[in-house]
Amino acid sequence: MRSEKEVQDRIRFLLSSALSRKVLEACTRMPCNCQHNHSQALDTRKNVAGEPNANYNRVSGEDLPVIGLCLLGVKDPVQWEGTICEDPIDAQRCSSFSLVSTRETISAEFDRQIKDLGWVEKHLPEVYGLLWALGSEVMPKLPWWKVLWFRFVQIRPDRLVKTVPSTLLLED
Questions:
Q1: Is residue 171 within 8 Å of residue 117, measured between CB atoms?
Q2: With the C-alpha atoms ordered 103, 108, 114, 117, is the resulting torsion angle positive or negative?
Q3: Is the dihedral of CA 121, 125, 130, 132 positive or negative?
Q4: Interval 10-62: pLDDT, tens
Q5: Residues paired with residue 51 on neighbouring β-strands, in sequence order
Q6: Cα distance between residue 56 and residue 34, in whole Å
Q7: CA-to-CA distance for 59 and 61, rounded, in angstroms?
Q8: Angle at 27 between CA 26 and CA 32, to 5 degrees
């Protein structure tokens, strides 16, 4: 049987791993992690001003499809004439990619999430089980070394994927 200190150490280890994953996900060059990205639902109106809508989305259901748009330098989305950015390769090749997450937002979100036991039960079931075994609803603090690591970690995007002109890939 494990002592209470050993169980709390295991919880701290699991929380440290979860924070590391959260930092890694925040630094991944994905469209959803870019501050210029906007998810726009497709048009669901059958008629516009009494006329049939040529852009009507015929897909039904609760999870309507969305399209990712790059709004870099656009003040009004109605006037948008830019690019579509919805696939990971779009973000990986974008030289204007800018992360939406900062160290402060990651820290605030992580603290908020681990205080919500419903979230912990769903996303960190082992931590929830260990808290239940301890008969506690109070989350132990992160280890000092992880707090120090997080203070110095740099939140920056993955490196840019260079594109090679397709003419270089063709044989002579």
A1: no
A2: negative
A3: positive
A4: 999 999 999 999 999 999 999 999 998 888 777 667 777 888 777 666 665 56
A5: 48
A6: 28
A7: 7
A8: 60
